[in-house]
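Morning!

As promised:
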Amino acid sequence: MVRKKATLIDVDYRIKGGKTLVRLLLKGRHLVRLYDEYEPYFYLDAPKGAEKEIMGAKVPSRDRQVSPTRCERAAMSVLGKEKEIWKVYCERPYDIPHVSGELAKKYPVYENGIPFGRRYLIDKGLAPFTELTYEREGRFIKKIISKRDSKVSLRTMSFDIETYNPKGSPRPDKDEVIMISYEIDGERKVITSKKIDRDFVIVCKDEREMIKKFLETVKEKDTEVLLGYNSTVFDLPYLKARADANGLDFSIGRDGSSFRVRRQGIRDVAEITGRIHVDLYPLVRFMGFIGAFKVSKYTLENAYEELTGKKKLMVGKLDIWKMWDDENLSAALADYSRFDALATMEIGKILLPLMVEMGRLTRLPLFDVSSATAGQLVESLLMHKSFEHRAVIPSKPNDALAHERELGPIKGAFVKLPQPGIYENMVVFDFRGLYPSIITSHNIDPFTLNPPKSVPDSDCFISPNGHRFLKKPRGLIPTVLEELIKMRGEMKKRLKKADKDTPEHEQAFARVQSLKILANSYYGYLAYPRSRWYSRDCGESVTAWGRHFIQETIEKATQSGFEVLYGDTDSIFLLLGSKTKEDALSFMKKVNSELPGDMELELEGFYPRGVFVTKKVSGDKETGAKKKYALLGEDGRIKIRGFELVRRDWSAIAKTTQRRVLEAILKHGSKEMAVKVVKDVIERLKQGKVPLEDLTIYTQMRKDPRKYDIKSPELSAAEKAIKMGVQIERGTVIGYVITKKGSTISEKACLAEYAQDYDPNYYIDNQVLPSVLKILKELGYSEDDLKFKGEQKGLSSFF
DNA sequence: GCGGACTGCTTACCT
DNA sequence: ACAGGTAAGCAGTCCGCG
């Protein structure tokens, strides 16, 4: 028996000799794989006398008829009630869905659909990135003695490929890989088959040797984490296809295997045995989606530039093959290729610490956490906590139930209609973590919901829509959420104390971030139709209380003599008017003294000026627009929400002009300046002086280009490009320009790369003017002033 | 035959 | 594939208009 220490990295399982062996990947000085025997099982809520019936179940599994191996009674908390149920064991993890599926026809089944590696982590109370002290015998773990947080560093390689693309997009069956760049341990190289005079270039005799060299390097460097950018969809499959074409095994795994692509939700993930493949592209998108890091475009270039603040070396994608063919330019192409590996590595350095902390927190291994959805993060932690509380983990709903849940969406938040205009001296308050604090303050949980009638109202929280929640005992979800909020508070203190640019600071930052992301996802998970802990009544109650508190606060503010301009979900915008900042703060204090539990109204800020605009409507009803405003902060910065300016599907020319108009009005209070800005831009547009990149409109194709019902400008541009050989599929963000050629806007649309000219009238009438007029209108320009009734030329004639 | 009102599809935003 | 609420563009259709 040997006592050892190592950090837990990953976990999966193998079947050997009819036994299921959990396989742990640990890192001490080196990576080691150790095994532990563990039996797969699920729970069944069947009567005491059902043993014969359970053991008698016989169903086809993967390769043969299987039955449970044994079963036993277990005392558990089942959907909020203490009772005895059956714990049913099977030989192999993949027998579980078959056997439980059969028995589910008659009795409720719990804890299904848990991947076996995770099952093991849950039952042993283990989290990735913790250091285990354990006793081992041969290749088996005998006993885990202790565990603690660990700062493990993983050998990380970034990589990227360039391909020959004379037809626009490269064709994996014909077009060669011309460069493979990578970075590991500060060594940044480009593998290529052309003699290029650069000291970082590794020259191979042909494509086959290049791929071989790359695979050897991955192996020799003992790569533990492999970072790519869109590598699941592009680099890995392309390399594999080229390896096949060259009669080469694409043996990138630690055991010499290739990679496996698995469908996860709507996207694919690529797994590599013995290494952790992290595709940063979906990760960058996910970060934006949950509001952690937001980038305006998801290209490697843009993500790198916006996340690091540095400029990336670029070449035109369509020129790559020409550069390769041109002796004078192939060195520049190598520089670019090498930069891709660097950019990928740098993005990894920003996102990986966050993934590691999120993994620790949710107990998910790095690969899983890097490819997880928000729902999986929440669910993972809840499953662990549920186990700790000896409560059965609810099963995932089947498709029929999930679809049924989707049919009745839950009523959401309240948004107050603003009165359009320009205002001075405002104060904005918002509820800190509104939904999480509502959940913890009212003990909202599927199993504290609707107690028996015999429980008096005084022992319940009653939601505005009439649902009752037991005050005691605490539900699992409020308990876990409360822990997260508390941890975040403590971690924020630690973050403040830590010196910048230290490992402590980086870790505290990543933890604060992870905790925030996670805590904010609980409400969504409760109302998510495929959630194990779905409860329509809970979800409805959270939003009902949300609407209740924001509306109550608006009433209180009005009664206290403030004019309430706007509010959305958890925020209220007040006009100070004759009142002082102190009055506002004492109002906030008063509100807080009347709020229950953890709920708190916070000062978001004071704003000397702000503007709300009119909603664009056909007809003559004029109302304010929700979710669109601009505020001038006391520090001179402008906070802009919802305007064209913050949308990627508007051209830069419209957006910068709108920004300059807002600055002229909010900062300088000058409408003359604003009008001059607009006149100048229109003049430049008319003279054809505006570069195409300022006119490009970016839109994501959210469907397969063949599956649209109607023709839109972006679809029309995409179709033209596809004809020329450009690859455009679901998810591609395309940039297009409205050109002079054609009659409808769609006909005029053309992919930016191929555009030769632009239609100034479109950019004046449909881009610049609409986006600035809605603001200028608040300065007293009347509708008629701006429209020039009867004028056929449209708005452009006004300026 | 033309413009305005309106609808449906679509995207991207706010919290 | 965590939720709902919202604005707004463009294409297409309907409707009035002697």
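Residues 291, 412-413, 415, 430, 434-435, 568-571, 618-619, 626-628, 641-643, 646-649, 699-700, 702-703, 708-710, 712, 714 of chain A lie near DNA strand B (CB under 10 Å from a C1').

Hope this helps with the figure draft.
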